[in-house]
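Input.
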Amino acid sequence: MATSYSYTHAGHHIVCTPKRTADHGYYASFRIYRGTSPAGDLVYEQSYPAAEFGSVDGANRYAREMATYWLDQWPIKGAFTRKRDGRAISYLGTYSVGHGADWNARVYCDGNLMATPGGAFQYDILSNPNIHQAAEHVILASIEDSIGTPR
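Output.
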């Protein structure tokens, strides 16, 4: 069994566990959990079987880089209890800047992926600091009003 490597980043716990290949190399694999331990809800997992490494350390280093990159692509993160039904909701969201800027999110309910709502802002009147707030507001509104998410 390969040695796992774990760390905390951006409010999430990441566990990198390399997998052994048929020719005794390793490929990178990671899981991202919400919170500061693997006891939290699983948010995302990914394996890279096409990239083979000669050591556990090499596979873990690559998995750490990819997991951190994946998490950093979601600048909007949060969790709350939905007023309507009391369900635990968490989300990861991102956005672009400029004319026709888009937004999208991954919405989890009780730890399971519930929906991936998204859309576009019609005008480029928002500057970068303001578009972050606008995108987060739209994501929260879509969750609360079940726009793009199941009731």
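The beta strands are 5-9, 12-16, 19-20, 26-34, 42-53, 76-81, 88-95, 102-109, 112-115, 118-120.
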